[in-house]
Write a structure and sequence with these properties.
By secondary structure, the chain is an alpha+beta fold. The protein has a domain of 148 residues. Helices cover 26% and strands 19% of the residues. It contains nine helices and eleven strands. The strands form three sheets. The protein has a five-stranded mixed β-sheet. A three-stranded antiparallel β-sheet has the order 2-4-8. A three-stranded antiparallel β-sheet has the order 9-10-11, with no helix packed on it. β6 and β7 form a beta hairpin. It starts with 6 loop residues before the first strand and ends in a 7-residue tail after the last helix. The C terminus is likely disordered.
């Protein structure tokens, strides 16, 4: 019996933390960058665009801010400096310039093609059966959750490019993107392929009581983070003060790093 892929539709509302301008910008990667394992994003495709979003604001925050976690080597150096009587600089502090240029936006897809659920064992079997040459070129024999959530972006970008190019017998594209789960926690995320119609949900940026936010009482927690007083967020020893999204100083009573 031929292997079948697991297909899903994105929810009505998605969230992304992104630059204020231009809104809903699709990520791109050059062919030269695409062959570098550490470059780009997880499902970037050379010659195509991918918009990254999450089902919840917390998922979008986590995915966006993960890059700013201090590495163990930096923490070790800071500890040595403190032991030597030196005052180490704050690690990974995101100041107001980072926050003020970004927004938390709510968006929706319009009449999108189905998305492939990359987490599903059925999808793993489907890709292995239909794209063995791709997998072998990357020295991968089998797909499973650890491999699709793993650190190899060559693998995940290769899979994304293969999915992006799939067409039916008439040459019509088959899929609108990929559903995946963040490596940083149980956050459902979406890699939306260009050609998919997406639009901002108007009015989302100036409301305090969006579902799931608890009217400013929902706090994003990340690892060993501590959270207090509305949206004051600390990632490990990184302090990110304030809300990314809406118009912070107009809409929220929150402390801001300056």
């Amino acid at each position: 019996m031929p292997a079948e892929v697991a297909l899903v539709d994105p929810p009505d509302n998605l969230w992304c933390v992104e630059w204020k301008e231009p809104p809903l910008r699709f990520s791109s990667i050059s062919p030269a960058e695409a062959v570098v394992d550490g470059a780009g994003n997880r499902f970037d495709i050379p010659g195509a665009g991918v918009l990254y979003a999450a089902t919840t604001p917390e998922g979008s925050f986590a995915e966006t801010m993960a890059h700013y976690r201090p590495k163990a080597s930096l923490i070790e150096k800071m500890a040595r400096a403190a032991n030597d009587g030196q005052a180490p600089p704050p690690a990974g502090v995101l100041d107001v310039s980072w926050r003020s240029t970004r927004m938390l936006r709510r968006l929706e897809t319009v009449d999108a093609l189905p998305f492939i659920d990359i987490e599903s064992p059925e999808t793993h079997t489907f890709i292995r059966a239909n794209a063995p040459t791709l997998l072998r070129s990357l020295n991968v024999e089998n797909l499973d959750v650890p491999s699709v959530r793993g650190p190899s972006r060559l693998l995940t970008r290769g899979i994304a490019g293969w999915i992006y190019g799939q067409t039916d017998d008439e040459g019509t594209l088959q899929y609108g993107g990929i559903r995946y789960v963040s490596r940083l926690g149980d956050y459902e995320c979406w890699a939306i392929f260009d050609g998919t119609d997406v639009s901002r949900v108007r009015g989302a940026s100036d409301r305090r009581d969006e579902p799931g936010h608890g009217g400013c009482r929902t706090y994003l927690q990340y690892g060993h983070s501590v959270t207090y007083r509305r949206y004051i967020v600390s990632l490990d020893i990184i302090s990110i003060i304030g809300v990314i999204g809406w118009d912070l100083e107009r809409d929220f009573d929150c402390q801001v790093s300056r």
